[in-house]
Write a structure and sequence with these properties.
Elements lengths: L2 E5 L3 H10 L4 E6 L4 H13 L3 E7 L2 H7 L7 E5 L9 E5 L3 E5 L14 E5 L2 H20 L18 E7 L8 E10 L5 E10 L1 H4 L19 H23 L5 E7 L2 H5 L8 E8 L10 E3 L5 H7 L2
Parallel strand pairs: 2-3, 3-4, 8-11
Antiparallel strand pairs: 1-7, 2-5, 5-6, 6-7, 8-9, 9-10, 11-12, 12-13
Helix pairs in contact: 1-2, 4-6
The protein binds zinc ion (ZN).
The site of zinc ion (ZN) has 8 residues, from loops.
Length: about 300
Amino acid sequence: MIKTESSFQDIERKIINELRGAKKSIRICVAWLNTDIYGPVLVDAITNGVTVEIIVNDDANNEKSISALNPSIKIEKVKVSGGLMHNKFCIIDESIVINGSYNWSNNAKNHLENIVIIRNDFELSRSFMHEFYLMRDYITSIQNRKKRNSCSISGCRFGVFNVGILGRESGQYCDSQVDIWEICKGNDHAIKIRSVDEQHLLAQLGLIDNPNHEEYWEITEENMVEVVELQRKDDQVVKDYFETMCGLNIHAIGCVAELNANEFLEGYANLMEYGINIIWKDIVYRESIPDQYLDGCGDIDDIIKEHI
Ligand SMILES: [Zn+2]
């Protein structure tokens, strides 16, 4: 049963209590972690066989604190300008999520803060697990990240995103067109930079007829790690496919979709409307890339026309 509780005081003690109850795993993603406060309980957890993984901001405060911590704790630091690391969440045993405004610092006790502790909401745990690993992927990908280009349309200075478009499959051989477009953030200029024809691509990438996918419908504490890994593998396989194709960083992946298919088929709409559903995005550019591009938006129409 899902159980949710909020706390506005005595937060440090409550967090430590939850950590003390961990049986399998602790994943912490916070800007600051004071190991004088949280170190002992984490070391005890490791001694009791609990896996502890930590992501923190890469700064002098953490460095000083964490350098004294037990080396068997897996710690990764996010180094980026602009305060990317603003997370304050923790997942315990894949079934308890602690989230809120509270930094895991000594100073946080002097502020008005909150946390929410949610138990047995496995869909919620799953989304935080994904976020945790996306942060970790970000850390490991920093060296391979290239600076984004600027839009090549004269007079447009916006940065461009490289978006991979998976075409729809049709016919006996599941033919599809797959392409990569440079789309600029400000004016939706779109320039096609690669295009290939494929057969049975989704099957080749293991994205259909995969019996493991059936597990996604009911996620539990027991299958959580496996399901999250499978889902992450699906994203990675498609991203790798596009990056191998173009030798560039891919910032988003999408597919052209009928947006009002039901209304159209039932006669409530005169025209079928199309758009591009973004099915994966780079964590850093999450807010800059929409979840959906609609037709009638600048050159986005050109992409849609090629896929309907
Ligand atoms: Zn542009």
